[in-house]
Structure to design on (266 residues):
C-alpha cells in the first residue's frame, strides 16, 4: 500500500496549495509521493525537500498512478461530490484538506525574531496569466517596495517588472522574501499566513480571480484586507500599520498534520 498526496497547481491558480503541501509533507516525514496537476512544478520539488513527485495533468489521472487500496491526501476543489465519493471507494484511506486550512512551515515561526531587512514587499502571487499586476501598478506607485516574482510569470513579463522595482525576489527566494520583509502586501492567502508566522505585517489584497475562502480566517487574525485595488485604503492601512494589532497563528497548524496521521496508516 502506497500513500499519495494530490495538490491542485497551475498557471491560473498559483501555488498556495502546493506551498502548504510542502509544509505538511515535511511534518509527516514519511514516504509519500506528491502528485501535482502541473508537470513543471513537479520537476522542481526536490529543491524543496520533496523526494518523490509526479505531474499528472488532470485530477482524473490519479487512478493511472495509484492502485485500488492505496491512501490519498487530497488538496483540491476540482472534484464534484460524485468524484469525491468514487475516490473514497477507490482508496483505503482518504483525507480531504479543507480549502481554508491554516498550515505554515515551521521555518517561518523560527524566523519570527530575525531582523527584517526589507521594509516592504509586494507578492501578487505565483500566477498572473492576464498580467493584472501590470494593469494595477499604480497601486504601489511611489512606494519603496520590493517585488516577489511568481513561478508562472512569462519571461518577458518578468523582465518588464524587474525594471519597475528597485529590488526583486526570484521564485526561489520566496522564503527569504517572507522572512526579510517587515510589511508584505500580497494577493496570496498562504503568503499572508507565512508572513504573519514570521513576525511580518501582512496586508491582503483580494484578487477578483482568487478564492474568498480565507475571509473569515483573516478577519479573526485581524489581517487588513483590500478589495478592488483601492490605493486610498492601502494608504490608510500603511499609516496605521505600526499600531495595528494582529492575531497569532498557532504552531500546530490547525491540527491538520495530526488529523492526517489519525486518518491514514503512516
Amino acid at each position: 500500500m502506497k500513500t499519495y498526496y494530490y495538490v491542485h497547481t497551475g498557471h491560473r491558480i498559483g501555488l498556495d496549495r502546493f506551498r502548504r503541501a510542502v509544509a505538511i509533507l515535511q511534518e509527516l516525514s514519511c514516504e509519500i509521493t506528491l502528485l501535482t496537476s502541473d508537470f513543471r512544478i513537479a520537476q522542481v520539488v526536490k529543491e524543496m525537500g520533496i523526494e518523490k513527485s509526479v505531474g499528472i495533468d488532470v485530477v482524473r489521472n490519479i487512478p493511472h498512478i495509484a492502485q485500488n487500496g492505496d491512501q490519498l491526501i487530497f488538496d483540491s476543489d476540482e472534484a464534484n461530490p460524485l468524484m469525491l465519493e468514487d475516490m473514497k471507494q477507490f482508496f483505503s484511506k482518504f483525507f480531504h484538506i479543507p480549502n481554508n486550512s491554516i498550515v505554515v512551515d515551521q521555518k517561518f515561526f523560527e524566523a519570527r525574531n530575525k531582523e527584517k531587512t526589507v521594509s516592504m514587499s509586494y507578492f501578487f502571487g505565483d500566477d498572473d496569466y492576464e498580467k493584472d499586476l501590470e494593469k494595477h501598478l499604480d497601486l504601489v506607485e511611489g512606494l519603496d517596495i520590493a517585488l516577489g516574482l511568481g513561478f508562472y510569470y512569462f519571461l518577458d513579463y518578468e523582465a518588464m517588472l524587474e525594471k519597475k522595482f528597485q529590488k526583486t525576489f526570484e521564485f526561489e527566494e520566496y522564503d527569504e522574501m517572507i522572512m526579510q520583509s517587515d510589511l508584505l502586501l500580497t494577493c496570496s492567502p498562504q503568503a499572508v499566513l507565512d508572513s504573519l508566522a514570521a513576525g511580518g505585517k501582512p496586508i491582503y489584497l483580494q484578487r477578483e480571480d482568487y478564492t474568498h475562502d480565507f475571509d473569515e480566517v483573516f478577519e479573526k487574525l485581524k489581517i487588513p484586507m483590500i478589495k478592488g485595488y483601492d490605493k486610498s485604503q492601502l494608504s490608510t492601512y500603511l499609516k496605521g500599520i505600526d499600531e495595528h494589532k494582529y492575531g497569532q497563528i498557532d504552531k500546530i497548524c490547525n491540527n491538520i498534520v495530526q488529523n492526517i496521521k489519525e486518518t491514514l496508516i503512516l
